[in-house]
From TrEMBL:
SUPFAM superfamilies reported in the protein's UniProt record: FMN-binding split barrel
InterPro entries tied to this protein: Flavin_Rdtase-like_dom, Split_barrel_FMN-bd
Source organism superkingdom: Bacteria
Gene Ontology terms for molecular function: FMN binding; oxidoreductase activity, acting on the CH-NH group of donors, NAD or NADP as acceptor
Residue ranges constituting the Flavin reductase like domain according to the UniProt record: 18-173
Organism, as annotated: Palleronia marisminoris
Protein name: Flavin reductase like domain protein
Amino acid sequence: MFYRPEDGHGLPHNPFSAIVAPRPIGWISTRGADGSENLAPYSFFNAVAYTPPQVVFASTSAKPDRGDTKDTVANIRETGAFCCNVVSDALKEAMNESSGPWGRETDEFAHTGLTKAQCETIACPRVADAPANLECRMTRIIALEGQSNFLVIGTVTGIHIHEDALKDGRFDVLSFNPVSRLGYRDFAKVTELFSMPRPGE
């Protein structure tokens, strides 16, 4: 089949996010200027540069109590800081629960029973039991085409790695089985690896 997005796909469910998959989950924690704290997952997320290390994520909807966006972007606008927490298989239920349409007064750490830790380089909470956390300074928020679509770019200023995830000097994803987002309501986790040397190596 072929379709133009502006004409519609004619299917029971939008296939776009199922085509661009799997996608890493940016489980973003923030603190607002008023001290309130928030935790929410974003599946439009990735690392985009090595030096300096940088990440991006996109928020694509709004809440009535946050104007043109949601709690995460609103907090980052106020403070310029956020943390990306890696989602392990053991944390997938808490991650999913934190995606609910909770009011801005809800602290998702408390709501999900997650242990909170403080970041080192930014004033922001992080998920203590995540296998890794990326502390980030926001460098830019870009308004994308469409209503309430915002791209957030951040430079990584600090990295936490759980000791259990380090094996022989490498970050071992099989020690925690990272969870990724597929289309619809589907997720996947990494349970096996294969390696391929680049040409010329």
